[in-house]
Amino acid sequence: MVFHPGLRHPLVLTATVLLSAISQPSAVRDPRQRPKVHASAVVAPTAALSGDVTVGRRVYVSFGSVIVGDDGPVENGQGMVVRENVVMRGGKNHPLRIGKHVHIGAHAALSGCTIEDELFLATQVSIFHSVRPGKSAEMQIGAVAHVNSVVPANAMVPIGWIAVGDPATNCPPEAHEEIWAIQKPRNLPRAAYGIERDANGRADMQILTDRAIEAARNHAWNRFEETGSSE
Predict the structure, then answer these.
(1) Could you report the per-residue pLDDT of 108-158, keeping only the tens digit for each?
(2) What's the predicted TM-score (pTM) here?
(3) What pLDDT, on the 0 to 100 scale, is given for residue 183?
């Protein structure tokens, strides 16, 4: 429950909260997978939370954003701002953890990474598995931090550039050979999907898609209303 300064009465914003359970269609809900939303958080009505998700103190999640903790936890500290249509996903071996006072711009995508305190992530930023951006770093519009990379504290990734390596090197998108030389041994298919590359350096897309579909089939989503808790 939150109070709008222009209203005399409390304004209650209720998100679409999805509860996942390993089940058949008549499944019993798994209470361990119920999203936890702090009473001081503001979650827009069209946001969707699923699975092991924690929305902390004084967090704002805007319209259309999706936070998925079905395969691994998503946790955040206080004062996080999530703008419109952001996708945040935790993984079995890659929990998504976000520190305090972090801004996540519209249409950003975060998967299984660890975000330190006081970061500014602009519109359409993408951050992949096991990436660790340091405190007070900044990623500008459309910037990418690739799998298993470490963006140093106070660093900046420019508009549309790719940060790759440990510590990360900033590369323009046209520098494919330089990016690939650093990125190939970091192995996105293994980190993200548990799949090794074949002799030609490619991931087996049939295995990848079959695993994703089977994982989805093992979850059932049941809608319930959540106006906030003090947890």
Answers:
(1) 999 999 999 999 999 999 999 999 999 999 999 999 999 999 999 999 999
(2) 0.80
(3) 83
The average confidence (pLDDT) of the chain is 82
Residue 27 confidence (pLDDT): 28
Token match 């990360």: residue? 168
Task: Look up tokens 């910037």; give the residue.
Answer: 143
Alpha-carbon Rg for the chain in angstroms: 18
Q: What residue has token string 């058949």?
A: 24
- Secondary structure (DSSP) of 24-71: -TTPPP-GGG--EEBTT-EE-TT-EEEEEEEE-TT-EE-TT-EEEEEE
Pick from 67, 95, 92: nearest CA to 80: 67
Q: What secondary structure does DSSP assign to the chain, as a single string?
A: -B--TT-SSPBP--EEEEEEESS-TTPPP-GGG--EEBTT-EE-TT-EEEEEEEE-TT-EE-TT-EEEEEEEEEEE-TT-EE-TT-EEE--SS--EEE-SS-EE-TT-EEES-EE-TT-EE-TT-EE-TT-EEPTT-EE-TT-EE-TT-EEPTT-EE-TT-EEETTTTEEE-TT-HHHHHHHHGGG-HHHHHHS----TTS---HHHHHHHHHHHHHT-EEEEEEE--B--
Sequence-separated (6 or more) residues with CB below 8 Å from residue 39:
1, 228, 229, 230
Position 46 pLDDT exceeds 50: yes
For residue 77, the tally of other CB atoms under 10 A from its CB is 19
Residue type present at position 205: M
Structure tokens at 222: 């049941």
